[in-house]
Amino acid sequence: MISIAVSTLGCPKNIVDSENMMGRLKLDGFHITDQPDEADVVVLNTCGFISQAVEESVNVILDYIEFKKEKKIILAVVGCLVERYKDELADKIKDVDIWLGIAEMNNIGDKIKTFFPQTKFVSKYKGKQWDTKLTPSHFAYIKVADGCSNRCSFCVIPSIKGNYKSRDMGDIVDDVSKCVLNGVKEICLVAQDVSGYGHDLNPSLSLVGLLKRLETIDGLKWIRLMYMYPDKITDYLLDYMALSKKICRYMDVPFQHFSTNILKSMRRKETEQSIYELVNKIRKKIPGIFLRTSLIVGYPGETREDFQKLLDGMDKLKFERLGAFIYSDEEGTAAMELPDKVSDDTAYSRYDKVMKLQQKISLNINRKLKNKTLPVMIDHIENDGIYIGRTQFDAPQIDNSVIITSSGGNNYLPGDFVNVCITSAGEYDIEGMIKQ
Length: 436
Prior knowledge:
Elements: E1 3-8, H1 12-27, E2 31-33, E3 41-46, H2 51-71, E4 74-79, H3 80-92, E5 98-100, H4 108-113, E6 139-143, E7 145-146, H5 157-161, E8 165-166, H6 169-181, E9 186-190, H7 207-214, E10 222-225, H8 235-243, E11 247-252, H9 260-265, H10 272-285, E12 290-297, H11 304-317, E13 321-326, H12 344-367, E14 373-381, E15 387-390, E16 402-406, E17 417-425, E18 430-434
Parallel strand pairs: 1-2, 1-3, 3-4, 4-5, 6-9, 9-10, 10-11, 11-12, 12-13, 16-18
Antiparallel strand pairs: 7-8, 14-15, 14-17, 15-16, 17-18
Helix pairs in contact: 11-12
Protein backbone atom coordinates (compact mmCIF):
# COMPACT_ATOMS: atom_id res chain seq x y z
CA MET A 1 0.00 0.00 0.00
CA ILE A 2 1.29 3.47 -0.91
CA SER A 3 2.06 5.52 2.22
CA ILE A 4 1.48 9.28 2.47
CA ALA A 5 2.75 11.72 5.09
CA VAL A 6 1.07 15.11 5.40
CA SER A 7 2.78 18.20 6.83
CA THR A 8 0.73 21.29 7.67
CA LEU A 9 1.74 24.94 7.99
CA GLY A 10 -0.38 27.87 9.11
CA CYS A 11 -3.55 28.29 11.12
CA PRO A 12 -6.09 25.83 12.59
CA LYS A 13 -8.21 26.20 9.45
CA ASN A 14 -5.35 24.58 7.53
CA ILE A 15 -5.28 21.77 10.07
CA VAL A 16 -8.94 21.08 9.29
CA ASP A 17 -8.20 21.09 5.55
CA SER A 18 -5.34 18.61 6.07
CA GLU A 19 -7.51 16.34 8.22
CA ASN A 20 -10.17 16.24 5.51
CA MET A 21 -7.58 15.63 2.82
CA MET A 22 -5.97 12.79 4.79
CA GLY A 23 -9.36 11.21 5.39
CA ARG A 24 -10.14 11.24 1.68
CA LEU A 25 -6.74 9.75 0.89
CA LYS A 26 -7.40 6.90 3.34
CA LEU A 27 -10.71 6.16 1.65
CA ASP A 28 -8.95 6.33 -1.73
CA GLY A 29 -6.86 3.34 -0.64
CA PHE A 30 -3.69 5.05 0.65
CA HIS A 31 -1.96 4.45 3.98
CA ILE A 32 -1.45 7.57 6.11
CA THR A 33 1.70 7.80 8.20
CA ASP A 34 3.06 10.52 10.46
CA GLN A 35 6.62 9.49 9.59
CA PRO A 36 7.96 11.09 6.36
CA ASP A 37 10.86 8.59 6.46
CA GLU A 38 8.33 5.80 5.92
CA ALA A 39 6.32 7.57 3.22
CA ASP A 40 6.21 7.14 -0.54
CA VAL A 41 4.58 10.55 -0.87
CA VAL A 42 4.87 13.72 1.20
CA VAL A 43 2.10 16.31 0.96
CA LEU A 44 2.84 19.80 2.27
CA ASN A 45 -0.20 21.97 2.99
CA THR A 46 1.08 25.55 2.86
CA CYS A 47 0.12 28.96 4.20
CA GLY A 48 0.30 32.12 2.09
CA PHE A 49 -1.50 34.63 4.29
CA ILE A 50 1.36 37.06 5.01
CA SER A 51 4.95 37.47 3.83
CA GLN A 52 6.42 35.63 6.83
CA ALA A 53 4.14 32.67 6.13
CA VAL A 54 5.09 32.71 2.43
CA GLU A 55 8.78 32.71 3.34
CA GLU A 56 8.33 29.86 5.81
CA SER A 57 6.37 27.81 3.26
CA VAL A 58 9.02 28.28 0.56
CA ASN A 59 11.79 27.33 2.98
CA VAL A 60 9.95 24.16 4.01
CA ILE A 61 9.38 23.29 0.34
CA LEU A 62 13.12 23.59 -0.27
CA ASP A 63 13.83 21.41 2.78
CA TYR A 64 11.49 18.73 1.45
CA ILE A 65 13.16 18.90 -1.97
CA GLU A 66 16.44 17.98 -0.27
CA PHE A 67 14.60 15.22 1.59
CA LYS A 68 13.14 14.03 -1.72
CA LYS A 69 16.59 13.69 -3.28
CA GLU A 70 17.63 11.45 -0.39
CA LYS A 71 14.47 9.35 -0.02
CA LYS A 72 13.16 9.32 -3.62
CA ILE A 73 9.66 10.33 -2.63
CA ILE A 74 6.86 12.03 -4.57
CA LEU A 75 6.44 15.61 -3.31
CA ALA A 76 3.07 17.37 -3.50
CA VAL A 77 2.62 21.00 -2.42
CA VAL A 78 -0.93 22.23 -1.89
CA GLY A 79 -2.96 24.98 -0.25
CA CYS A 80 -2.98 28.75 0.13
CA LEU A 81 0.54 29.48 -1.11
CA VAL A 82 -0.09 27.52 -4.29
CA GLU A 83 -3.42 29.26 -4.80
CA ARG A 84 -1.60 32.61 -4.75
CA TYR A 85 1.61 31.78 -6.64
CA LYS A 86 1.18 28.48 -8.48
CA ASP A 87 2.57 29.56 -11.87
CA GLU A 88 5.48 31.45 -10.37
CA LEU A 89 6.36 28.61 -8.00
CA ALA A 90 6.11 25.92 -10.68
CA ASP A 91 8.37 27.96 -12.95
CA LYS A 92 11.08 28.50 -10.32
CA ILE A 93 10.93 25.27 -8.30
CA LYS A 94 11.19 22.32 -10.67
CA ASP A 95 11.52 19.43 -8.23
CA VAL A 96 7.95 19.49 -6.89
CA ASP A 97 5.87 16.76 -8.54
CA ILE A 98 2.37 18.07 -7.82
CA TRP A 99 1.12 21.64 -7.30
CA LEU A 100 -2.52 21.98 -6.21
CA GLY A 101 -4.37 25.11 -5.14
CA ILE A 102 -7.24 25.07 -2.68
CA ALA A 103 -9.90 24.36 -5.29
CA GLU A 104 -7.95 21.33 -6.56
CA MET A 105 -7.09 19.69 -3.25
CA ASN A 106 -10.07 17.33 -3.41
CA ASN A 107 -8.44 15.70 -6.45
CA ILE A 108 -5.11 14.98 -4.82
CA GLY A 109 -5.72 11.23 -4.63
CA ASP A 110 -6.21 10.98 -8.39
CA LYS A 111 -3.08 13.09 -9.00
CA ILE A 112 -0.95 10.89 -6.77
CA LYS A 113 -2.23 7.68 -8.37
CA THR A 114 -0.79 8.72 -11.74
CA PHE A 115 2.70 8.25 -10.26
CA PHE A 116 1.93 4.62 -9.36
CA PRO A 117 0.38 3.14 -12.51
CA GLN A 118 1.17 -0.46 -11.49
CA THR A 119 -0.52 -0.20 -8.10
CA LYS A 120 -4.09 -1.33 -7.56
CA PHE A 121 -5.97 0.99 -5.22
CA VAL A 122 -9.02 -0.31 -3.36
CA SER A 123 -11.50 2.47 -2.69
CA LYS A 124 -13.11 2.36 0.77
CA TYR A 125 -15.83 4.93 0.23
CA LYS A 126 -19.26 3.25 -0.11
CA GLY A 127 -20.93 5.88 2.08
CA LYS A 128 -18.09 6.16 4.57
CA GLN A 129 -16.73 9.50 5.77
CA TRP A 130 -13.18 10.44 6.61
CA ASP A 131 -12.20 10.53 10.28
CA THR A 132 -8.54 11.50 10.37
CA LYS A 133 -7.34 13.89 13.08
CA LEU A 134 -4.08 15.81 13.42
CA THR A 135 -4.85 17.25 16.84
CA PRO A 136 -4.69 15.27 20.10
CA SER A 137 -7.64 13.02 20.80
CA HIS A 138 -9.36 15.31 23.33
CA PHE A 139 -9.88 18.46 21.24
CA ALA A 140 -10.62 19.27 17.61
CA TYR A 141 -11.00 22.21 15.27
CA ILE A 142 -14.25 22.32 13.31
CA LYS A 143 -14.54 24.69 10.36
CA VAL A 144 -17.98 26.31 10.08
CA ALA A 145 -17.30 28.34 6.94
CA ASP A 146 -14.66 29.10 4.35
CA GLY A 147 -13.67 32.24 2.51
CA CYS A 148 -14.43 35.83 3.49
CA SER A 149 -16.69 38.56 2.11
CA ASN A 150 -15.00 41.37 4.03
CA ARG A 151 -12.44 43.31 2.03
CA CYS A 152 -9.91 44.49 4.58
CA SER A 153 -7.18 46.40 2.79
CA PHE A 154 -4.32 44.24 4.09
CA CYS A 155 -5.83 40.78 3.60
CA VAL A 156 -5.47 38.32 0.71
CA ILE A 157 -7.93 35.72 1.99
CA PRO A 158 -10.86 36.72 -0.28
CA SER A 159 -8.62 36.48 -3.34
CA ILE A 160 -7.38 33.05 -2.22
CA LYS A 161 -10.57 31.46 -0.92
CA GLY A 162 -13.37 33.58 -2.37
CA ASN A 163 -16.44 34.93 -0.62
CA TYR A 164 -17.78 33.66 2.68
CA LYS A 165 -19.44 30.24 2.39
CA SER A 166 -21.13 28.75 5.45
CA ARG A 167 -21.21 24.99 5.79
CA ASP A 168 -24.45 23.09 6.16
CA MET A 169 -25.44 23.09 9.83
CA GLY A 170 -26.30 19.39 9.79
CA ASP A 171 -22.85 18.54 8.44
CA ILE A 172 -21.18 20.55 11.21
CA VAL A 173 -23.29 18.86 13.89
CA ASP A 174 -22.47 15.45 12.42
CA ASP A 175 -18.74 16.25 12.44
CA VAL A 176 -18.86 17.37 16.06
CA SER A 177 -20.93 14.34 17.10
CA LYS A 178 -18.43 12.01 15.46
CA CYS A 179 -15.53 13.76 17.20
CA VAL A 180 -17.21 13.44 20.60
CA LEU A 181 -17.91 9.74 20.03
CA ASN A 182 -14.16 9.37 19.44
CA GLY A 183 -13.27 11.03 22.75
CA VAL A 184 -13.14 14.75 21.92
CA LYS A 185 -14.09 16.96 24.87
CA GLU A 186 -13.45 20.42 23.38
CA ILE A 187 -14.52 21.78 19.99
CA CYS A 188 -12.96 24.97 18.61
CA LEU A 189 -15.17 26.53 15.95
CA VAL A 190 -13.04 28.24 13.29
CA ALA A 191 -13.55 30.29 10.13
CA GLN A 192 -12.36 33.63 8.86
CA ASP A 193 -15.38 34.98 10.72
CA VAL A 194 -17.23 32.55 12.99
CA SER A 195 -19.70 35.25 14.07
CA GLY A 196 -20.94 35.52 10.48
CA TYR A 197 -22.00 31.88 10.31
CA GLY A 198 -25.24 31.26 8.43
CA HIS A 199 -25.90 34.80 7.21
CA ASP A 200 -25.19 33.76 3.62
CA LEU A 201 -27.46 30.71 3.66
CA ASN A 202 -31.00 30.64 2.32
CA PRO A 203 -32.91 30.69 4.57
CA SER A 204 -30.50 32.59 6.77
CA LEU A 205 -29.25 30.86 9.92
CA SER A 206 -27.41 32.18 12.96
CA LEU A 207 -24.43 31.14 15.02
CA VAL A 208 -26.72 30.86 18.04
CA GLY A 209 -28.84 28.33 16.16
CA LEU A 210 -25.72 26.22 15.58
CA LEU A 211 -24.60 26.56 19.19
CA LYS A 212 -28.00 25.41 20.46
CA ARG A 213 -27.66 22.19 18.50
CA LEU A 214 -24.06 21.60 19.55
CA GLU A 215 -24.88 22.07 23.22
CA THR A 216 -27.23 19.07 23.11
CA ILE A 217 -24.38 16.69 22.25
CA ASP A 218 -23.68 14.49 25.27
CA GLY A 219 -20.00 14.31 26.18
CA LEU A 220 -19.05 17.66 24.67
CA LYS A 221 -17.68 19.78 27.52
CA TRP A 222 -16.25 22.96 25.95
CA ILE A 223 -17.23 24.92 22.85
CA ARG A 224 -14.72 27.62 21.92
CA LEU A 225 -15.42 30.52 19.53
CA MET A 226 -12.46 31.80 17.53
CA TYR A 227 -12.04 34.59 14.94
CA MET A 228 -15.14 36.71 15.55
CA TYR A 229 -15.66 39.74 13.31
CA PRO A 230 -16.77 42.61 15.62
CA ASP A 231 -19.77 43.93 13.71
CA LYS A 232 -21.54 40.55 13.80
CA ILE A 233 -21.27 40.05 17.57
CA THR A 234 -24.91 40.57 18.52
CA ASP A 235 -26.65 41.05 21.85
CA TYR A 236 -28.51 37.81 21.10
CA LEU A 237 -25.21 35.92 20.87
CA LEU A 238 -23.77 37.50 24.01
CA ASP A 239 -26.93 36.84 26.04
CA TYR A 240 -26.91 33.21 24.91
CA MET A 241 -23.22 32.78 25.77
CA ALA A 242 -23.79 34.25 29.23
CA LEU A 243 -26.30 31.48 30.06
CA SER A 244 -24.43 28.61 28.42
CA LYS A 245 -22.80 25.84 30.46
CA LYS A 246 -20.61 24.64 27.58
CA ILE A 247 -19.46 27.72 25.68
CA CYS A 248 -16.10 28.85 27.05
CA ARG A 249 -15.87 32.29 28.62
CA TYR A 250 -13.51 33.20 25.81
CA MET A 251 -13.79 35.11 22.53
CA ASP A 252 -11.17 35.79 19.89
CA VAL A 253 -12.00 39.15 18.28
CA PRO A 254 -9.22 40.52 16.01
CA PHE A 255 -9.66 44.30 16.20
CA GLN A 256 -6.38 45.05 14.28
CA HIS A 257 -6.03 48.63 15.61
CA PHE A 258 -7.67 51.25 17.82
CA SER A 259 -7.01 54.40 15.78
CA THR A 260 -10.09 55.39 13.80
CA ASN A 261 -7.91 56.79 11.02
CA ILE A 262 -6.04 53.52 10.60
CA LEU A 263 -9.20 51.43 10.91
CA LYS A 264 -10.79 53.46 8.12
CA SER A 265 -7.75 52.95 5.90
CA MET A 266 -7.88 49.23 6.70
CA ARG A 267 -11.50 49.21 5.48
CA ARG A 268 -12.67 48.02 8.84
CA LYS A 269 -16.17 48.89 9.99
CA GLU A 270 -15.16 49.80 13.54
CA THR A 271 -14.03 53.06 15.11
CA GLU A 272 -12.07 53.64 18.28
CA GLN A 273 -15.32 54.44 20.07
CA SER A 274 -17.26 51.44 18.73
CA ILE A 275 -14.48 49.08 19.83
CA TYR A 276 -14.50 50.49 23.34
CA GLU A 277 -18.29 50.19 23.46
CA LEU A 278 -18.28 46.60 22.19
CA VAL A 279 -15.58 45.40 24.60
CA ASN A 280 -17.35 47.03 27.54
CA LYS A 281 -20.64 45.44 26.43
CA ILE A 282 -19.09 41.99 26.16
CA ARG A 283 -17.56 42.25 29.62
CA LYS A 284 -20.82 43.52 31.10
CA LYS A 285 -22.97 40.79 29.56
CA ILE A 286 -20.48 37.96 30.21
CA PRO A 287 -18.70 38.67 33.52
CA GLY A 288 -15.33 36.97 33.79
CA ILE A 289 -14.86 36.46 30.05
CA PHE A 290 -11.32 36.44 28.68
CA LEU A 291 -10.85 38.28 25.38
CA ARG A 292 -8.16 37.67 22.79
CA THR A 293 -7.39 40.15 20.03
CA SER A 294 -4.83 40.63 17.28
CA LEU A 295 -3.19 43.92 16.32
CA ILE A 296 -1.21 45.12 13.32
CA VAL A 297 1.63 47.61 13.86
CA GLY A 298 3.47 49.56 11.19
CA TYR A 299 0.49 49.86 8.85
CA PRO A 300 1.07 52.46 6.08
CA GLY A 301 0.38 55.95 7.39
CA GLU A 302 0.52 54.90 11.06
CA THR A 303 1.70 58.07 12.80
CA ARG A 304 3.05 58.41 16.31
CA GLU A 305 -0.41 59.59 17.36
CA ASP A 306 -2.05 56.54 15.77
CA PHE A 307 0.37 54.20 17.49
CA GLN A 308 -0.22 55.92 20.82
CA LYS A 309 -3.95 55.29 20.38
CA LEU A 310 -3.11 51.62 19.91
CA LEU A 311 -1.12 51.58 23.16
CA ASP A 312 -3.84 53.55 24.95
CA GLY A 313 -6.43 51.05 23.77
CA MET A 314 -4.39 48.15 25.10
CA ASP A 315 -3.91 49.90 28.44
CA LYS A 316 -7.60 50.78 28.85
CA LEU A 317 -9.19 47.59 27.53
CA LYS A 318 -6.62 45.19 28.99
CA PHE A 319 -7.12 42.16 26.78
CA GLU A 320 -6.32 38.94 28.62
CA ARG A 321 -4.80 37.45 25.46
CA LEU A 322 -3.22 39.41 22.62
CA GLY A 323 -1.08 38.80 19.56
CA ALA A 324 0.58 41.36 17.32
CA PHE A 325 1.84 41.31 13.74
CA ILE A 326 4.14 43.64 11.87
CA TYR A 327 2.46 44.87 8.70
CA SER A 328 3.84 43.55 5.43
CA ASP A 329 2.89 44.46 1.87
CA GLU A 330 0.89 41.63 0.31
CA GLU A 331 0.60 41.40 -3.45
CA GLY A 332 -2.90 42.18 -4.69
CA THR A 333 -4.07 44.05 -1.58
CA ALA A 334 -5.20 47.67 -1.49
CA ALA A 335 -2.82 48.49 1.36
CA MET A 336 0.17 47.63 -0.81
CA GLU A 337 -0.56 50.72 -2.93
CA LEU A 338 -0.75 53.10 0.02
CA PRO A 339 1.91 55.80 0.52
CA ASP A 340 3.69 56.71 3.76
CA LYS A 341 5.17 53.31 4.49
CA VAL A 342 6.48 52.83 8.01
CA SER A 343 10.16 51.92 8.15
CA ASP A 344 11.16 48.45 9.30
CA ASP A 345 13.07 49.87 12.28
CA THR A 346 10.04 51.84 13.42
CA ALA A 347 7.66 48.93 12.89
CA TYR A 348 9.84 46.51 14.87
CA SER A 349 10.29 49.08 17.64
CA ARG A 350 6.52 49.51 17.89
CA TYR A 351 6.01 45.76 17.91
CA ASP A 352 8.41 45.44 20.85
CA LYS A 353 6.53 48.13 22.77
CA VAL A 354 3.22 46.36 22.16
CA MET A 355 4.52 43.02 23.39
CA LYS A 356 6.23 44.51 26.46
CA LEU A 357 3.03 46.30 27.44
CA GLN A 358 1.00 43.12 26.93
CA GLN A 359 3.42 41.17 29.11
CA LYS A 360 2.73 43.58 31.97
CA ILE A 361 -1.02 43.39 31.40
CA SER A 362 -0.95 39.59 31.21
CA LEU A 363 1.14 39.29 34.37
CA ASN A 364 -1.26 41.46 36.35
CA ILE A 365 -4.25 39.46 35.11
CA ASN A 366 -2.57 36.15 35.94
CA ARG A 367 -1.63 37.32 39.44
CA LYS A 368 -5.33 37.88 40.17
CA LEU A 369 -5.85 34.15 39.62
CA LYS A 370 -3.57 33.18 42.53
CA ASN A 371 -5.31 31.19 45.26
CA LYS A 372 -8.33 30.61 43.01
CA THR A 373 -9.42 27.10 42.08
CA LEU A 374 -10.14 26.65 38.39
CA PRO A 375 -11.33 23.73 36.24
CA VAL A 376 -8.42 22.65 34.04
CA MET A 377 -8.32 20.25 31.11
CA ILE A 378 -5.19 18.08 30.98
CA ASP A 379 -3.43 18.48 27.61
CA HIS A 380 -0.35 16.30 28.03
CA ILE A 381 2.11 14.84 30.50
CA GLU A 382 5.78 15.79 30.47
CA ASN A 383 8.49 13.14 30.75
CA ASP A 384 9.11 14.10 34.36
CA GLY A 385 5.48 13.49 35.26
CA ILE A 386 4.41 17.13 35.25
CA TYR A 387 0.90 17.68 33.91
CA ILE A 388 0.26 20.53 31.45
CA GLY A 389 -3.28 21.76 31.07
CA ARG A 390 -5.51 24.71 30.16
CA THR A 391 -8.38 26.65 31.61
CA GLN A 392 -11.43 27.54 29.54
CA PHE A 393 -9.73 30.92 29.03
CA ASP A 394 -7.03 29.47 26.77
CA ALA A 395 -7.26 28.09 23.25
CA PRO A 396 -5.20 24.95 22.51
CA GLN A 397 -1.83 25.45 20.83
CA ILE A 398 -2.26 29.25 21.02
CA ASP A 399 -2.72 30.59 24.54
CA ASN A 400 -1.37 30.05 28.04
CA SER A 401 -0.87 26.80 29.94
CA VAL A 402 -1.39 25.65 33.51
CA ILE A 403 1.63 23.80 34.87
CA ILE A 404 0.41 21.35 37.52
CA THR A 405 3.18 20.87 40.05
CA SER A 406 1.37 18.31 42.19
CA SER A 407 -1.26 15.77 41.13
CA GLY A 408 -2.00 14.50 44.61
CA GLY A 409 -0.68 11.08 43.70
CA ASN A 410 -3.35 10.42 41.09
CA ASN A 411 -2.86 9.54 37.44
CA TYR A 412 -4.66 11.49 34.73
CA LEU A 413 -4.96 11.32 30.95
CA PRO A 414 -5.22 14.03 28.29
CA GLY A 415 -8.81 15.25 28.22
CA ASP A 416 -9.40 14.70 31.94
CA PHE A 417 -10.73 17.63 33.95
CA VAL A 418 -9.26 18.51 37.33
CA ASN A 419 -9.68 21.36 39.79
CA VAL A 420 -6.43 23.26 40.21
CA CYS A 421 -5.59 25.79 42.92
CA ILE A 422 -3.33 28.42 41.35
CA THR A 423 -0.17 28.93 43.37
CA SER A 424 1.97 31.18 41.17
CA ALA A 425 1.69 33.26 38.01
CA GLY A 426 4.06 34.36 35.29
CA GLU A 427 3.60 36.65 32.32
CA TYR A 428 1.93 33.85 30.39
CA ASP A 429 1.75 30.47 32.13
CA ILE A 430 0.45 29.83 35.63
CA GLU A 431 1.19 27.04 38.10
CA GLY A 432 -0.99 25.17 40.51
CA MET A 433 -1.79 22.02 42.46
CA ILE A 434 -4.69 19.67 41.96
CA LYS A 435 -7.25 20.15 44.67
CA GLN A 436 -8.83 16.90 45.82
